[in-house]
């Protein structure tokens, strides 16, 4: 069957108005549809063919609206079809193949959508009344756009780590970037991870909403192999991927700021960043969140073929340090217990996974770099 021909009769045509882009004159035309495009029959008998690929739809997404299609550049020709039977016919030709066309939702879909929105608002109000802000924060977190998390995380990082405290060594940066990309495949997540190494005496590491991970030099230098650092990064990356940072931050925000976050509003980002920096610098995750980050972090390591024994070994190193350091940030926010290490060991699939990771001289040299 040739394109456009219909069994049992001539193809269906619709009356339409055509604008040639040169003047505002309206030309009455008729339109026929085919599998690859539409044909416009002008009054003088000359046909025009538009391929669906080249057509832009600028109107007709809402019920009762005429469909307006545009084509061509720089002269923009336009076609307006009022006939209500045109939309379902066009839809039957383009659906699933050309994703740039939009049609009004069916009545059933619209009712379902309104119903879902209604139930969500009831749930939100109930959560707020019954359990207060933390419960509402948990409910809102999945709706916060990644772009909001990135903006807030970036602004908070600016507050928390001044430029002159950041390690800028090119070789160090490249090595860490490679490690991070191997750990979290950027093509499989909406988050872009960035590591910032802080030149400071504190022993700490933390994650910010949206994909920034901050590591302090003493902690970086305490890792004897890339596998050990990968363990810390996998855990921190999971706090981002599982939105633990965002959830904890939202719990601390005002109701208005939380609603703003759900809508991706970044208008008050300056003030928000100051508050976020305050909240995130003393952040304590719940025990559940820590266990989840450990568990999912271990999965991340195994998927990226890092020896997970590195993660366990680093935690054992930390255990050894306990008592030598005055309240190091990483230990106070990430409780180190025998139980935690035992739980991680239980997750290893093969006994050989627990083999020690040999210290790596080159790694230790790179980890000590900071400025050019
Ligand atoms: Zn943690």
Overview of the structural elements:
The chain has 2 domains: 13-94, Roll (PH-domain like), CATH 2.30.29; 134-367, no CATH class. The chain contains 15 helices and 10 strands. The chain has helices at 86-94, 107-131, 133-140, 146-160, 170-183, 217-222, 226-241, 244-252, 255-262, 269-281, 287-303, 309-321, 329-333, 338-347, 361-367; strands spanning 13-19, 27-33, 37-41, 47-51, 56-59, 67-71, 77-81, 194-198, 205-207, 212-216. A hairpin with a 7-residue loop joins strand 1 (13-19) and strand 2. Helix 2 (107-131) runs antiparallel to helix 3. The chain is elongated. Bound molecules: zinc ion (ZN). Zinc ion binds at residues 235, 239, 285, 290, 293, 334.
List the helices and strands and how they pair.
Layout: E1 13-19, E2 27-33, E3 37-41, E4 47-51, E5 56-59, E6 67-71, E7 77-81, H1 86-94, H2 107-131, H3 133-140, H4 146-160, H5 170-183, E8 194-198, E9 205-207, E10 212-216, H6 217-222, H7 226-241, H8 244-252, H9 255-262, H10 269-281, H11 287-303, H12 309-321, H13 329-333, H14 338-347, H15 361-367
Parallel strand pairs: 8-10
Antiparallel strand pairs: 1-2, 1-7, 2-3, 3-4, 5-6, 6-7, 9-10
Helix pairs in contact: 2-3, 3-8, 4-10, 7-11, 7-12, 12-14
